[in-house]
Amino acid sequence: MAESKFTPGPWGVEKSEAYKDTWRITADGQRLASLDGDDGEPEETKANADLMADAPRMLEVLRALHDFALPLRHIGLPEASAQALADARALLEKHGG
Length: 97
Description:
Elements: E1 12-15, E2 22-27, E3 30-36, H1 42-53, H2 55-69, H3 79-95
Antiparallel strand pairs: 1-2, 2-3
Helix pairs in contact: 2-3
């Protein structure tokens, strides 16, 4: 697996006090990203920020599911499950999960 190079979680979401409809993704008080909702729906911008902030946790869950399912590949998984396992492994390798 590749080494993780992203900021460790947990990440959070904060509303910007300076900019209308802007959400910040943060970790340990450090701003990682800002999403500006002026051009779209404010609810969609907030949902996007929430999804991005959950990325480190989703990676942890993906790792746990991958590790659980990996031994099952020897019993002959259905094609869709085998593909999902391969996709999980590729994402984990890419992101160092």
